[in-house]
Amino acid sequence: MDIFERCYSFLDVKNAKEFGIYPYFIPLTENEGSEASFHGHRLIMCGSNNYLGLTTHPEVKEAAIEAIKRFGTSCTGSRFLNGTLELHEQLEHELAEWVGKPAALCFSTGMQVNLGTVSALVQRGDFVILDKDDHASIVDGARLGYGKLERYIHNDMEHLEKTLQSIPDSAGKLIVVDGLFSMEGDLAPLPEMIPLAKKYGARLMVDDAHGMGVMGGGRGTAAHYGVTEDVDLIMSTFSKSFASLGGFIAGEEDVISYIKHHARALIFSASITPASAAAALAALHVMKEEPDRPARVLRNADKMRAGFKALGYDIGASVTPVVPIIIGDNEKTFLMWKTLFDEGVFVNPVISPAVAPGHQLLRTSYMATHTDEQLDEVLSIFEKVGKSLGIIS
Fold this sequence. Notes:
Elements (H helix, E strand, L loop, with lengths): L4 H4 L3 H7 L11 E2 L3 E4 L2 E5 L12 H14 L14 H14 L3 E5 L2 H12 L5 E5 L4 H9 L3 E5 L4 H9 L7 E6 L11 H10 L3 E5 L13 H5 L7 E5 L9 E5 L1 H10 L1 H4 L6 H16 L2 H20 L10 E5 L3 H14 L1 E2 L1 E3 L10 E5 L6 H17 L5
Parallel strand pairs: 3-12, 5-6, 5-7, 7-8, 8-9
Antiparallel strand pairs: 1-2, 2-3, 4-10, 9-10, 11-14, 13-14
Helix pairs in contact: 3-12, 4-12, 5-6, 7-8, 13-15, 14-15
């Protein structure tokens, strides 16, 4: 068999483009944050993870420019060898302090943080326990490790305990969970998970890619619950609230040192670029200097959840700036995405197998920089489109 045969017979994209409903890889002409442009077509951006609106903040942009002037465009090597700058270590020190942990380590992408951390820690004879709704990077990190993977029903603490009970006491155990789940906007019940982790001798790692900068005054989901000391590892990415590219893991110094010397995703990748590191550091400084931004994004999210509910949409269990509009059908999801796009609202369609069949949705997300006028316009368009397609009455 020709290994390319599966490529030639993959017709989903061609068919979607033929019908004019292909929703991915859209080349935006402009993207200033709360609004974007596609070939001159204005769009209110409700599909971004730019929660604090910092990608266009003057201090963040200037920091990236100055870093290029000082260090150039790349470190051209691994952190392990020639690719570590004082800038990286400053960023790590301030991130650790921000999330309340002794040490932190920066990777070049958030995906690499999870690939490197989980695969480095979980070895033969160990178990990694994941929520079924965990991000793909966590799942892939678990697969790269040599341990055994177990999964429990989403946010089901009874099933988590049964899973932990089934694992030998002598085995190493790492629970990895999203703090804020990226598709449906609900939170992991960390106060309920921590006692179970302690009872069964498991360590707990929280992926706070979407919670950092938003929850807990910007310090993340563990801070939101007041349980930072009881969470062993906190991970986040720079591609969301930090308005950059990269990611970090924070925890005990000995654990971070072990990851630093064993994570293949760190050792065999070029280090985070100077501009990306400087932008993330500047974004962190803005978070500290402008503490109202997390409150503003949560207020905007409250407004949109209330508005969607009033219109009759199913928004699931969202309590965050990620607000899903649950449609429950692939074709209707794509059709509604396209109609909203044509009307001037950018959202993200999410279909099976990314979500369970019957749970297909439009992922909407909000920023601190969205104005009330923009949000009112979004709700008005959702009302018009939803009624025209029979999604709401």
